[in-house]
Structure formats: C-alpha cells, structure tokens
Please model this.
Amino acid sequence: MLSLISTPIGNLDDISLRAIDVIRSSDYLYAEDTRSFKKLLEAIKFKKSCRSFHEHNEDRVLNEIISHVTNKKSVVLACEAGTPCISDPGFKLIRKFVDLKLEYTLIPGPSSVTNALVLSGLPTDQFSFYGFVPRKQNAQNKSFEKVATEIKTSIFFESIKRLRATIENLTNYLEKNRKISVCREMTKLHEQVVTDTCFNVLKEIDNGNLTLKGEVVLVIEGAKKIKHNLSIDKKIKDEFLSKMSVSDAAKLISLLTKQNKRDIYKILNKS
Model:
C-alpha cells in the first residue's frame, strides 16, 4: 500500500502520531527532499534510508513504487513540506494508482494553503488555489486579470524575493480597498501575518515592518458582488410567459442577460 504523508510546514512538532506510526512501519520511504525528510526522521528518533522522488525523476521512480506496492510492500511518500500533490510531486503517481486500481491513502496533516487561508482573516467559505504566481509578466497579468473579478478568496505561493514586485503589479488589478494577506514563516518562530490593502502592505515592506525572509503565501480577498437593480418590462414579461413556463422563461432571460436565474424567477412569478 502507498501512504502519502503530510509533513510539517515549519514546526516539526506538527507531525501527527498516525504519520509517525505509518513511517515506522513502512518497507520503503520516498521523499521530495531527502535531506529535510531525514531531519524529520531524526526528530521522531527513527533511522531508515529514503530515496528521492521529485519532478526530475518522477516518471522513472513511480514504476519502482508501483512494483513495490504490487509486491505487497508498504511505501511512504512525503513532500518537502505540507501535503503531497499540492504544488509538489505525486499527481502522476496517484493517477497511475487509480488506473491500476492499486491501494493508496493520504495521512492528513499540515497544509500551507489552508493554514494561510485561516490566518489571513479573509473569507474562508469559498477559495481558489492557483499554485505559484507565474514568473513571466504576460502570464502573471492574465492570472491577475482573472483574480480581479474572482469573488472567491484567491491563494498563491510566491517567492519572497519577488513578493514586492508581485504586490505592486496587483495594484493594477485590485480595487484600492480590497485586501490581501501575506503569511510568512507559518508555524515557525518568526511567523508573521500582515492583512491590509496592497498599498498599506507595500508600506509595511518599505518601512521594514514586513520582513522579506523565509517562505510566504499570498492570500487575496475576493471581489465584491455587484448588485443589479433588476426589472423586467411588463410587455416583455407577458410575451415570454405566453410562450413558456416561468421556469423556462427565467432560464432563457438569465442566459440572455447574465443575471441570476432565481432573481428573475421571483420577478416573473409576481402577479
């Protein structure tokens, strides 16, 4: 069986008891970064060799892992920090396991995505994760154009070295009062969270209050929903309802006007 292990994103004490048990009982260990994983093994007082599994050798090593599991061996796969497959290797392997109907599971645990979402103080009911901010300017601009109208909270990974330039570019796409959150060094000794407008976060960076060191996650508040004063002319309303049901009329008008179907239905249903 293959067990994907979620590992601490900073504080080694965040490793779960279940994860420790699975690691200790495994036949084979694979890790994205063997050096950082060995530090975790030392912390739980367990000695065992581990092999690397990363984007450059994934195609080759996944067949090795499949062979182990096929032969009834227990295999552990851990990423450098957080949950495997989330901007980390493992997706191709899982797809193979699904196709081959092999047994696998995830040992849940730390995730910098959900950690940052909660710490940001921004809405958590709906959110989109975009991975790393695109490096190329055109790709970044297209990404931010999408975020500009996104009503859900948006989450990105970003390099601390590019953070200031990225936020400066964001000012071209976000409303002045729309908030962002920079979550830095989460779970570590110098954890820092700054949630404010782009302009004020840039001031915090320039004033030296927001330290440009360590790992960072960028969270962006969703766009406000625009409320439309919806009304339908009586003649148009009567014309639609003479030819179709209220439900069908609401659906058609919604498609034509891009307005909420439920709101249109309520108006059409009024006498």
Residues 58-70 form the longest helix (13 residues).
